[in-house]
Specification:
The complex is a heterodimer of chains A (132) and B (389).
Chain A: H1 2-59, E1 66-70, E2 73-77, H2 79-131
Antiparallel strand pairs in A: 1-2
Helix pairs in contact in A: 1-2
Chain B: E1 5-9, H1 10-13, H2 16-56, E2 63-69, E3 73-79, E4 85-90, E5 93-97, H3 99-142, E6 146-150, H4 154-169, H5 172-196, H6 201-220, H7 228-245, H8 249-270, H9 275-283, H10 285-299, H11 303-308, H12 318-345, H13 347-359, H14 361-372, H15 376-388
Antiparallel strand pairs in B: 1-6, 2-3, 4-5
Classes of the chains: A mainly alpha (132), B mainly alpha (389).
């Protein structure tokens, strides 16, 4: 009995360390997820803005003067060129958004598995403690 | 007929603290959305102001203005080219536009903002509904509501409903016997009642009944919040009345069934295996119902037993007539509501409902329900009626 009670604390300590590291990993994943959400929100807003711009550009007649703000100066741009640029930008951001979706899904899967393993660990710990 | 189900107190499933946290979280989300809505509304107002400004600018060839110089100083100047605007389209793109074209752009932008506002409002209302749900769940849990779950076994349900039907249409002799016994029991009860006058004993019993059955019933009506008490009373009252009305044969049979159902439901709730008794009652079903009900409030939930011991029958005719009138009126309204509610809960109840409804739709459900928690108020009224007779 004495030997088992001496053994148990060591096992419990080990488990606690393990649990701690797992919890850290989980919180890191959660941080990543929230970061992903932030960035995605920004991208979504940008897509919306670019779509608005594209709509306005489509409405301009061919002779209209279009400028692009580059740094501190306004640079005159061809309308067709501006349209192409905006379209390309929208495509790029949409692709980026899709990529982020996939990443988010990955992260969530990881999060769930981490949660499960933590719960299992906790149960094991409880069992050991109950025995001791 | 022995059914297995689980009755879990809601409080055990959702801890108070957790529900409170959930409510707080949703409230926070709602607040965020409201802030966002305020921001967008600010944009919208700015946009409207800008539109009116742009519309007025070309009215004059030039405007005398004070030009801001740095943060702190102004000097006089004038706006010229009042119909030439460099409009930011977004994302660093600008376009030369006339005032009229600019207002068009601004209008389109305003529409966009409006759509955004609508979306945010919709989200807010969704979140509020969620918050309400959490709150009501918390309230229910704290009130000790019970969630009742029961596996739906199709075969069992079918067989049980069949037995119901067969019993109701079954041999006349059985029925007659049962009827006679019920009547006898009724008479006995009445005598007792008369003797005891306005006994308080029954009321006491009923209260007990209420506590036991009341909880389970709450569980059944899970969706309902606290305010049910009064409704229950109504229902149960109607049930007891209708039970007495049962002399009318056809009427009686329906009721019987409902009572049976009720019995079955109750059994499940309590987890007790009343299978044998239930089956007996089924066989005798038609006439018996009324009795059982009458008995039930007196004997405090031991319907089964009471129904079995039924003596010689008495003077039903006038008695039932009075009660029937009442039963018809009062309960009918509540019935529909209840029946729909019940359907949502247990398969068994639903089925009974259907079979019953064929014969005599709404009543059955009601009366069945009523039996379970025969409350004090119904009883007293019941008595009053009897006295009037």
């Amino acid at each position: 009995m004495a030997s088992s009670s001496a053994l148990a604390p060591a096992a419990v300590r080990e488990m606690q360390r393990d649990l701690e590291s797992q919890a850290n990993a989980l919180s890191k994943i959660q941080k990543d997820i929230s970061k992903n959400h932030e960035v995605r929100k920004q991208f979504t807003i940008q897509v919306g803005e670019n779509e608005l711009v594209l709509k306005e550009l489509e409405l301009l007649n061919d002779g209209a003067n279009v400028y692009k703000l580059i740094g501190p100066v306004l640079v005159k741009q061809d309308l067709a060129e501006a349209k192409a640029n905006v379209k390309k930008r929208i495509e790029y951001i949409s692709a980026e958004l899709k990529r982020m979706d996939r990443a988010l899904k990955d992260l969530e899967d990881k999060q769930n598995s981490k949660k499960e393993s933590i719960i299992r660990l906790q149960q094991k710990m409880q069992a050991v403690q109950a025995k001791a | 007929m022995a059914k297995k189900g689980t009755a879990t107190p809601l409080g055990a499933v959702f801890s108070q603290e957790e529900t409170r946290r959930a409510v707080a979280r949703v409230a926070q989300a709602v607040a965020d959305r409201r802030a966002e809505l305020g921001r967008v509304q600010g944009f919208f107002a700015d946009n409207a102001a800008l539109v009116s400004l742009v519309q007025r600018l070309p009215d004059e060839l030039s405007h005398e203005i004070m030009v801001p110089f740095g943060g702190a100083a102004f000097f006089p100047g004038s706006l010229i080219h009042t119909n030439q605007l460099l409009v930011l389209l977004g994302d660093g793109y600008y376009a030369d536009r006339s005032a009229k074209q600019t207002t068009e752009i601004l209008h389109r932008r305003g529409m966009e903002l409006e759509a955004q506002m609508e979306a945010i409002k919709a989200t807010i209302s969704d979140l509020e509904a969620e918050a309400k749900f959490f709150e009501s769940t918390a309230a229910e849990a704290s009130e000790g509501l019970v969630e009742i779950r029961e596996e739906y076994d199709e075969d069992a349900e079918i067989s049980s409903s069949k037995s119901d039907a067969s019993s109701s249409y079954g041999g006349m002799s059985d029925k007659d016997m049962e009827h006679a016994r019920n009547m006898a029991r009724l008479a006995e009860l009445e005598v007792e009642e008369n003797e005891s006058g306005n006994t308080s004993e029954e009321d006491g019993d009923d209260d007990d009944d209420d506590e036991g059955a009341g909880t389970s019933e709450d569980g059944e009506e899970n969706g309902d919040t606290s305010g049910d008490g009064s409704e229950h009373d109504n229902v149960s009252f109607s049930a007891s009345v209708s039970g007495s009305a049962g002399n009318n044969q056809s009427h009686g049979s329906t009721q019987l069934k409902s009572a049976l159902k009720k019995l079955g439901g109750k059994d499940m709730l309590k987890g007790a295996s009343l299978a044998p008794s239930a089956s007996t009652s089924k066989i005798n079903s038609e006439v018996q119902v009324p009795f059982r009900k009458a008995v039930s409030f007196k004997d405090d939930n031991r319907h089964v037993v009471s129904s079995l011991k039924s003596p010689s029958l008495p003077q039903d005719p006038n008695y039932p007539a009075v009660s029937q009138l009442t039963s018809d009126r009062a309960p009918s309204r509540d019935r529909n509501i209840i029946s729909s509610r019940q359907k949502a809960f247990t398969g068994s109840i639903v089925e009974h409902d259907d079979s019953l409804s064929a014969i005599q739709p709404p009543r059955s459900n009601d009366s069945g329900k009523a039996v379970s928690d025969a409350p004090s108020r119904p009883v007293s009224r019941f008595k009053m009626q009897k006295g009037g007779r």
